[in-house]
Design goal:
The chain is of the alpha+beta class. Helix content is 12%, strand content 27%.
């Protein structure tokens, strides 16, 4: 697959920023282990701490296409998310935090979109991606309670395109994914609502990117 220079440059910039962003997320040191370590004395030398182990980031660099089994990014509304529009995603986890960055190019200018991490992979239908991934799962689904449907318990990546149709957004949450599915990012037609009874809603599903 061929990629545009801008998309490649955008993804490269995002990847380069991931370690810097994660560095501010806190130490990976286990507090219980620190408490059990004796205080160094004049006769005791301490070894330098090993560098933190980072989970390799997920990197997606592709273009939107109409549905096919091989498509990595699917548009369901070609007016709002045109075929061949570029998309880049980086998701990285470290120190109990998750950083997700989304960048797009080639969308209509000066428009708002909602975007969230969803549980299932993209499919032929926009609904195939399932519901939002939630760190603490709302027992009542679909979730519209702001206690659960909020940008700290879910990953929200809303963005507004500039005059050239480009945008980027990022989310940092203080948790990491567990073994439940978190397989896609869905782009929606409007910014995400926050009011009780509507929290997490962002209108129709326009496009989907497989992670």
């Amino acid at each position: 697959m061929r990629y545009s220079r801008l998309s490649a440059a955008t993804a490269g910039m995002i990847v380069a920023l991931v370690p810097l962003a994660l560095a501010g997320c806190g130490s990976t040191t286990d507090p219980s282990a620190a408490a059990a370590t004796p205080t160094a004395t004049a006769s005791t030398t301490s070894s330098p701490s090993p560098p933190p182990v980072l989970v390799p980031p997920t990197v997606v660099l592709t273009r939107f296409a109409r549905y096919s089994p091989d498509a990595k990014a699917i548009t369901y509304d070609t007016a709002r998310v045109p075929v061949d529009a570029d998309v880049a995603v980086v998701s990285a986890q470290a120190a109990g935090h998750t950083l997700t960055v989304l960048a797009v190019r080639g969308l209509p200018p000066n428009q708002r979109f909602g975007a969230h991490v969803h549980s299932n992979a993209c499919g032929q239908s926009a609904e195939d991606a399932g519901s939002h991934y939630q760190h603490l799962v709302d027992p009542k689904q679909p979730s519209v309670d702001p206690a659960y449907a909020n940008p700290q318990n879910e990953i929200w990546l809303d963005f507004t395109t500039d005059a050239s149709g480009s945008a980027h957004s990022e989310s940092t949450v203080n948790w990491v994914f567990d073994n439940r599915p978190h397989k896609s990012i869905v782009i929606h037609e409007t910014s995400t609502e926050t009011a009780p009874g509507h929290a997490g809603k962002a209108g129709a599903r326009l496009a989907c990117v497989d992670l």
